[in-house]
Amino acid sequence: MGMDLPTLTTLLVSLRLSIAVQGTPMDAFRGNIAAIHARDRAAYLSYYLHTPELARVGPDGLHQGYDEFARTTGDGWPDTLVATPLRILPVSPDVAYGVYRYRVVDTSGSARGVSERVFVRTPAGWKVAVTTAFPTPGAAPPPTAFIGATLVDGTGAAPVRNAVVVMRDGRVACAGPRAACPVPPDADTVSAAGKWIIPGLVDTHVHFSQTGWVDGRPDALDLREQYPYDQVEADLHARPERFFRSYLCSGVTSVFDVGGYPWTLDLQARTAQSSTAPRVLSAGPLLSTIDFWLNLPDQRQFIYMADEATVRQAVRAHKAWGAAAMKVWYIMPPQPPDTARVSALVAAAGDEARKVGLPLIVHATGLWEAKDALRAGARVLVHSVWSAPVDDEFLALARRAGTIYVPTLIVPDGYRQVAARRFERERQPLGCVDPGTRAKALATDSVAPAKRPTAAVLEQRTTRTAQGLAQGQANLKRVHDAGIPIALGTDAGNPLTLHGASVFMELEAMQAAGLTPLDVLVAATRTGARALGLDSTGTVTAGATADLVVLDADPLADIRNVRRIALVVRRGEVYTRRELEYR
Ligand SMILES: [Zn+2]
């Protein structure tokens, strides 16, 4: 069977003409997605059939008609849309089927799904006749392989050059030298030559019940007339997703909320299998040695340790609630009325926690209280000792209790900046901070000038903060040199210690204390995961949860290079840094 030349030529010419005029279904598909990226409503609508038959299908069923579609189009573009890969299957010369996997990120978090188009050929070009979108929140991301990066796997081992990391079903399937990790044929491959891969960062000290500014801490600067505390807290409860995005944007893929309102416990189940939020573990309301006033009328974040029965009951309640730990806020009143009594209550908390199988974690910044917490069996100390140099007794107690020491070095400086009414905005990447929080942080400089402390008071404050940091750093070095495990924790949520974005300052303060970049990295990954009790996280090794970060610069040359994030992976879902940033 043959076709004569003139006929073939005519066909080719007409085909070429038709391509020139109408493009291909793939051109229309790309143009359709590009219009979403450009938030160009007119361009977007031009790709759809302007007929009553236009069909849209989603989880709620079928909707038909262009007019109804056009009415709501453009009401809410996503901050970012990743559509990969676009695939076109020709059905007939005039019909093509298109499909892609989508991921959108907006202030309410991120969503994933599958979207389809049926394109039909019209005189005006290829147009969408049918469009569908179905969320697939539980679906595993496609298998992916990063090829050619230098791997710093979080175990403390020497970096592996020209490595391959294969991820499948949300876990690391293989990580190591190229020869040891063949790339599976079905994997999406990403060239990572010239880049560094580290485990996702773990922040062992955050508070979702706090905003990152003073409106969540009226005890630091009381602005409740402008920012009513109950409203601030209701808003935090309603929208923690904005901080989820800030954490992922900053390379933080697991966090420990070590004290807050009861709803923070719900974040655990919500994020355990998520690829759109960091893994959250929560301690829930904390036991406090002082009867602190900062609670809501109908719920408490501080449970006063009035007597032993109250303490033991609170620990058992935490176990029943599914809390990941029992946190004690060990604050000494200025004139300790009865240290033996407080000491006995903390010991009772430790004893009951041991009985029910909950790790005890303690905020104690004084050497005396910290030692007492270690005697009570504290598994994690979530602040530096700032009052004095740690001594041999402290180190022996920490070693005996198997305690992980979390330095939390930078948080006092946020309070100092608030007092001075000067937000040092260059220290945290504000691209990772949601616009509302960013605006508040930037308002620090002009807020409540009448309540500004005197210059003399501010100078004292600055000196005290610097001395505290120096003491904290010296103690960190001493504790680290003694072989006590160290984990990173920022205390994010406190004023100007911003969720996610503050992690870099803490990393750098740990390096400045004399730890090597590798020591700091292990503290911020593997040991952090241990502090959270997560053995499947914190390293890039076969079997671990596929939480990792791809950097543009060498973190072992300088921990500051952790700021240079190219990609963030949470349970195998690969995000670009840019996609996670707030505009
Ligand atoms: Zn804290």
Would you give an account of this structure?
Helix content is 33%, strand content 24%. Strands 7, 8, 9, 10, 11, 21, 22 and 23 form an eight-stranded mixed β-sheet that branches. It has a six-stranded mixed β-sheet with strand order 2-1-6-5-4-3. A hairpin with a 2-residue loop joins strand 5 (109-122) and strand 6. It is globular. The termini are far apart. Residues 205, 207, 258-259, 491 line the site of zinc ion.
Largest sheet: 8 strands, mixed
CATH structural fold name of the largest domain: TIM Barrel
- Calculate the terminal CA-CA distance, rounded to whole Å: 60 Å
Relative strand content? 15-25%
Q: Which cofactor or ligand species appear?
A: zinc ion
Q: Write down the overall geometry.
A: globular
State mean pLDDT (0 to 100 scale): 91
Q: Give me the CATH superfamily of the largest domain.
A: Metal-dependent hydrolases
User: Which structural class fits the helix and strand makeup?
Assistant: alpha/beta
Count of runs of 4 or more consecutive helical residues:
18
What is the architecture of the largest domain at the second tier of CATH? Alpha-Beta Barrel
